[in-house]
Amino acid sequence: GAVVSQHPSRVICKSGTSVKIECRSLDFQATTMFWYRQFPKKSLMLMATSNEGSKATYEQGVEKDKFLINHASLTLSTLTVTSAHPEDSSFYICSAREPMRGRQETQYFGPGTRLLVL
Amino acid sequence: SQQGEEDPQALSIQEGENATMNCSYKTSINNLQWYRQNSGRGLVHLILIRSNEREKHSGRLRVTLDTSKKSSSLLITASRAADTASYFCATAFTGNQFYFGTGTSLTVIP
After folding, report:
1. Can you give the pLDDT of all 110 residues of chain B as single tens digits?
2. How far is A12 from chain B (nearest CA, A)?
3. Distance of alpha carbon B39 from alpha carbon B43, whole angstroms
4. What does pLDDT average to over chain A?
5. Which residues pair with B4 in a beta bridge?
6. Which residue in A41, A93, A97 is closest to B96 by CB distance?
7. How far apart are CA A82 and CA B9, in angstroms?
8. Which residues contact A101 (CB under 8 A, 6 or more apart)?
């Protein structure tokens, strides 16, 4: 299957700093990528849909100015957590949609980035 | 919220037994997919079932879909200790976003 990578895998930062997380599709072009966050022992919550060359679409309740998304190329989307606070500590996971083959649609998930804000 | 719900939230079984997890969702879907997640790790795609399909098999996995009841089930037969993980259903809508269920934490006791 297709491969999606995330970098970094783990980050610890001080409150007030900004953190950038990269999501890359390694062997396919992804016009659409998705960002999720997951709290311990909880499900994944969709944060936003990242569209190459256009603005991201955010889910209700997700602050656009807090979570900046840039999808500058067909293989890279970045999520920047601005002025991070301890409540932003979470597991962030991206996925990339591989273009449709026949009638099937598949998303491939990255391994996740664990953010800890002190 | 479009998030689905899964039950049970936690399931503990002996190795060799079958494990069944259920997922319910709220609106019409294009397809439903099941994922597995080991603790603190990313998601692994297990199986996709389209809205016009009722049952699908993949190895020891069997998935059913009942669109009239807006529910799906995942059956893992002859479970192994290595099957211990959290299992999530994800529903895909017209916008191609995925909304995940609340998850079932499965523990298979050797």
Report:
1. 556 788 899 999 999 999 999 999 988 888 899 999 998 788 888 999 999 999 999 999 999 999 999 999 999 999 999 999 999 999 877 656 778 888 999 999 99
2. 16
3. 10
4. 89
5. none
6. A97
7. 33
8. none
Burial of A109 (0-12, 13-18, 19+ CB in 10 A): buried
Q: Which residue of A lies nearest to B98 if distances are taken between CA atoms?
A: A46
Which residues on B lie below 8 Å from A8 (Cβ)?
none
Residue matched to tokens 């002859």: B78
C-alpha span between B105 and A85 (Å, rounded): 29
Select the residue of B30, B97, B105 nearest A46 (Cβ to Cβ).
B97
Q: Residue A103: what pLDDT?
A: 40
Within 8 A by CB and 6+ apart from A91, the residues are: A37, A38, A39, A40, A112, A113, A114, A115, B40
Residue A30's pLDDT band, with cuts at 50, 70 and 90, is: confident
Nearest to A107 among B3, B95, B98 (CB): B98
Task: Name the minimum distance, in Å, from the CA of A114 to any CA of chain B.
Answer: 8
Beta strands B43-50 and A113-117 are unpaired
